[in-house]
Amino acid sequence: MSDEKKIAKYERHIKAWLIELENTFSKLEKTEDPKKKEKLEKKIARNKDDLKFCVETLINLGGKIEAIEAVIPDSQKVVLKTLYLRNSEQDRVKVEKEIARIKKMLHKLKEMAKEESYGRGDDIEMKMKNKLFREEAFVGYRLNRAGEKIRLSGKPNAGYNDYWNYARDYASTKDKYFTSEEQHLIQKCLESRQEEKAYLVEKRAWLGKLGSGLLETAEKMDAWGDLAQAKFWVRNLYQDACPVIIREMYGKLPKAEEEQKSKEMTRRYLEFLRSEEQIAELNRIYADTEKEAEELKMKLKTFSFQNDDFLSKKNDREIQELIRIMEQDVDGQNLLVLYLLRERIGMEKTAFISQYKYDPILDTRKELLNKFSIEELGL
Known about the structure:
The protein has 379 residues and is mainly alpha-helical. It folds into three domains: 3-84; 88-203, no CATH class; 207-369, no CATH class. The chain is 69% helix and 1% strand. It has helices spanning 3-30, 34-60, 65-69, 74-81, 88-112, 124-127, 131-145, 166-177, 180-203, 205-208, 226-250, 255-273, 276-301, 316-325, 335-345, 347-358, 362-369, and strands spanning 329-330, 333-334. Strands 1-2 form a two-stranded antiparallel ribbon. β1 and β2 (333-334) form a beta hairpin. α1 crosses α4, α7 crosses α9 (180-203) and α15 (335-345) packs across α16 (347-358). It is globular.
């Protein structure tokens, strides 16, 4: 999607959130029920966060907020202008709220530690099966995320906390807000997150591309004959690339069985490259999934799970995993998009369309591989 289309999309989002806020403010003024008031105030706070995220994203893309101000009513302009108004009392309350949130997470960990345990020297595969370790890693993730104003993709981070965050404020205020025990636990959470992150990056490597072996010999093409080059790429597929997918799908197999399945997958990938219908269909599904991922990100950021058919069926651990991956990229591809694709079309087709879309020499490779029959290529 071009920046112009993204700008237009976020302009629409901003206008929609302004209408929603205006309507909610109107309901708040009319209600006298304390419970309803509290519920509406929480909704306003969430909507303001969503609006602020959209405004920051629009500006980051090169859009102008003045273009929106020119076409909205005065009542909505007031909402927009007060979005960034802050005072010291509001700041103090926001800081206290964030510290209370962190302490609540730490207390949960202390309670879990009464029933769960693991060894710091345990294998990472064992740790990943331990509830306490995974919860520590999740707390570490949230601490880190709150201090990242800009994501790796260059877009604003909706989880950024400008009032108090670990990266900027912990060193100077840790003794003010946290006990020695809590400080020790915070460091433990950050260490667990680093271990988990390293493990998951390696575990998810298959998502980013079908195999690095495909890319390693691109510069050698001029020195080889066409058939020799094509056969080399095919060997890269069934010897280096496809086995990664096979292991992810079936686990560890006998060597002969893994090789057979890898060759069968390679044949299917070559057939995929020759079918414009299959390519068009998976490209369409990929585009639809990107749109679905954007909608899910908004719901994950605002913890709006109950009204979503997909998210409402997920347990807490699965929701945590989705929150972790929604802003992570592998070789330019968003992990949430690839996760949704895998659920929708399976791992093999996800790998095929992933490689197809992000192969830097796709046209050359496709032309050369399609030049010869599958039998001529050694399969």
